[in-house]
## 1
Amino acid sequence: MKPLHYLTLVLLILALVIAFVPQNTTRPYKLTAEQLLAEIRTGTQFVSPDEVADKIIQKDPSIQLIDVRNPREFEMFSLPGAVNIPLQDILSEGNTDVLNQGTKMNILYSNGSTEANEAWLLTRQLGYQNNYVLQGGLNYWMETILSPSKPGGVISNDEIARYDFRKAASMALGGGDVHASAAAPAASSAAPKPGVVPVKKKKKASGGC
Amino acid sequence: MGPLAVNDIISSNTNFFLAFVIGIGFGFVLEQCGFSSSRKLAGLFYGYDMVVLKVFFTGGVTAMLGLLFFSLFGWVDLNLVYVNPTFLTSAIVGGLVMGFGFIMGGFCPGTSFCGAAIGKIDAMIFIVGLFIGVYFFAFGYPMFETLYKSANMGSPKISTMLDLSDGVFALILVVVALGMFYAAEWVEKKFPREEY
């Protein structure tokens, strides 16, 4: 056999293999420090409480609330439909399916926004898309949604509309008598049962022989 | 996980050292392939010797497959591999200038240094010409600037343009390269030249 035939054989086999294996898309490192800084500065990761409340009330199936506080706090109070992924478990294998997917919009929240932001940073650094942070966290949620204060003084129509929406949202989400000062108020009976961390594992592509 | 220098796995000094070693290796291989002879390179244009085409295409295809497999095994992150940006106009004009220089001088920049290293006078003259060209371009840069910078396309990949996966495009390119190798063999038989 001539050298050219050997070369043909080897190159063709290798090329056939590479053409039919799926591309390796796992990367241990996605963003440079500059890129991350740019994202943080524009604040694109934040979702306002009003937007989230609207989506919850409309039972929007495209959102997934993720509570990054500890399980004890989660038991006491959580947003409807939220799953609990404590910050320290954010890297564990079982949560990858929830955090790294392209269909749902994950909204991370904690009491303030620090922990949620930390979780968001980690997921960004892992290259996951679709993760967002509830602006101001639960504390701000209490203030704005569950017990909205009537805007005073000269107010625009927009503000009135927002207040009305918040009042309505507060009613729908079982707020009203909850005080803003309560960091982790007892779960109100009107709030739906907190969701359970899904154990569902996305089926791995099962390859036949 | 590579690229080694980008991910700070090796220092820039080590990087320079490796470049030095690889450069020597490259020169050695060029010399061993006979590229230090200007007849070899001119042969490509007259059809009696297609070694240049075969060597460079084998090199390109091997590197392509190697990188794709490294990426598959998670050894290298292709997103971090530096790709020269494409400036279409200057690539075409530069390609033509390079091609004419190639056929007139019988060397490309790399092989001219190989030739000079083994004492070929024509290669040394070629290097002198090369430096004249370099100075001409450098000092005349304001003249060429618009042309040089026009049609910037970033770092496009043909596979993305054709909407193919990198692997499928690699397969196509390998088939094309192999087709060219067999065509080259045929051309060499068609235009034989005994002694050079």
## 2
Amino acid sequence: MIAALALIVGIVVGLVFRPTVPTWLEPYLPIAVVAALDAVFGGVRARLDGIFDAKVFVVSFISNVVVAALIVFMGDKLGVGAQLSTAVVVVLGIRIFGNAAAIRRHVFRA
Amino acid sequence: MADDDDSTAPVQPDDGDKTASPAKLPAKLPAKLPAKERPTARYRAAALIGVLTAALGFAIAVQVRANSQSDSLSNLREDDLIGILDNQNARGDRLRQQITELEQTLRRLQDSGDRNAAARQQAEQDAAALGILLGTLPATGPGVKVTITDPDRKLTAEDLLDVVEELRGAGAEAIQFGPVRVSTSTSFTTSGGAIAIDGNVLTGPYTVFAIGDSKTLDTALNIPGGVAAATRAAGGDLVVDERDVVTITVIRSLSTPKYASPAPH
């Protein structure tokens, strides 16, 4: 509940304040967002499974974001930034789909 | 726990409660945690989760806005940008080449247009000059009005023709004799004692308009032994009235040559 409210508040704040993305953050922000989304979906699933743990959620959230950004950073340095970004997005996308499927089974029993 | 693991079965904790750090709990109350630890931990966790998800929402909004607002180039990588730049340069070259070609075409068309316009202007001038000389166009300009009176009707067709010839000789460019515009085919005839010009019977006094240098025309008509003298000798009179503006509106229709056709130069 808090998480959903905070998400909405964050979106509203982002829309109201209209900040511009700093240049150094530009390559990492989309990947970080996707990684955080993965963590959120995982958290929702765990909550539905009844095994939610705030600490695990916080740690996985932060580590997801950091690792995703790190991968992109390394990819950029190695000259394969675009490919690694794609790889990260694909992997995270698969995980989000898996978690979404589990959530769906919980919610719709199907 | 296991919130971010993939679809393999997550590790199942001993029960569904929210905290797992004090894993070894007194066995009698597995569902309850130490009361002193529970509220602060819960609040802290809730606050952290709230902060993180708020940050996520914020980031989503910012990223969506940045992605939809800024031009798509800012998100591209160097290689892609170089490729796009190459494409744009090639396109610019192509377009510049097209501009050059089109400008050449434009110049060519303008030249030919100028030539056409000049030719048409020349043709119009020629047509106007010919029309005035042939009597197919109205004419205006300085000239004279000649009034010939012949109370005794002694003037012959030849005398009137002399007037026209004299005017022509003096450089008259357009002549109206009575009701008729004088041209190359104009004829004076005598029919039954009356004089006719191109078939129109003339009755005195005769009025002639001529466009040309008025002084020269006047002089030519009044030359000693000329037409004025001949008219006066016949008992009539010839009065020349020099005018700054003489307008001849009578025109003739041009007959198409029946036998003659333009010969090649």
